[in-house]
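Example (one chain per record):
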Amino acid sequence: MANKNGVRPYTAQELSAFCAELALVLRTGMFLPDGMAAMAKESGDPVVARLHTALQGGAGLAPAMRATDAFPDYMLGMVDLGEAAGKLEQVMEALGLYYEREHAVRNQIKSAVFYPMALVAIMIVVIAVLLIRVLPVFADVFADLGGAAGAVSPEIASFGEIAGYLALALAALMLVLCIHLFARLRSASGYAALMRGLARLGFTRRLAEKIAAGRFAFALSMLLESGYALDDALAKLPLVVDSDRAAAQILACREAIAQGASFSKAVEESGLFPGMYAHILGVGFRAGALERVSAKVAALYEDEIDRSIARLVGVIEPALVALLCLIIGAILLSVTLPLMDIMAGIG
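Predicted structure:
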C-alpha cells in the first residue's frame, strides 16, 4: 500500500533483507556508494537506486533514506545515530535481526487473525448453501406430500433463500475485509492499529502485552549493542512499541530510574515485565551484560507468543467447528423431523 507520496513502504521482511545486505557491504570495507550501486544493480529496486544517487551526491545515508519515504521513522533514527557514533555496521546488523523478528511476529499475528476468519467464512458459505439449495428441496417434498403441521412452508423456504444470499454477501464482505487487513498489515501503521485493537480486547490483551514486552526486550538489546547508554535507549523505546500502555510504562520506568530506583525494581513496578523477568534483567544489569540478557528475555517471550497464539487458535477453531455443527444440525432437524412425521402418517 503506497503512502501519500506514492511510494510503497518496505515490509518488515524487505527491511530485514536490506539491513542484512547493507551490513555485509559495510563489513567488507566497501565504499558505501559503491556498495549501494552493487545492491541497486542486483535488486533492480528504484528505492535503492535513489539511495545510490543521493550517496554519490554527498548525502548521508540517513537523509538519503528519509528522502525516499520507504523506511520507518524508527529505522531512520537508528541509522542517523549509528552514523554519528561511527557504528553503522553494528546498527544495520541489529536492525536486520530486529526486522527479521518483526516479520516472524507479524506472520504469527496473521495466522491468529485470518485462520478464524477463514473458518467463519466457510461456515457462512455452508449455511448459505443449505438455505439456498437444500431447504427449497424439502419445501417441494412437503408440498408434494400435501404439507404437515410444522413442515417447511413456501414462505419459510423463501425466507431461507433470502437469508442464504445475505449470508453469501456477508462471506464476500469478509473476504474483502481479509484482503484489506492483509494489505494493511504490510505497513507499519496498519500493524500498529491491529496491535492497539488486540490490546483493547479482553481475550487478546495478554497476547498484545507479551508482544509489546518482547519487542521492548529485543529493541533494548539492540540499542545497547549499538552503543546507546541505558537512558538514551529508554528514550528511544516508546517508538518501538505499538501500545500506548507500553509506551507509558517505559516512560514510568525511565522516570523511576532517574529518581534513583534500581533497574529491576523500576521495570517491575512499571508493569513492563512480571517479577521473574524483571529479576533476570536486574541480574544482567548488575553484571554489565544487560544487552545479552535482554536478548535472552526476548527469545523467551518469542516462545511464549508462539504458545499463546497456538492456544488462542486451538480454542477458537473447535468452538467455531462446534457452532457450525450445531447450526447445520438445527437446519437439518427442522426439515427432517416433519418429514418423518409425514412418512409415519402415510405408513
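Caption: Residues 12-99 form a domain with the Receptor-associated Protein fold (CATH 1.20.81.30).
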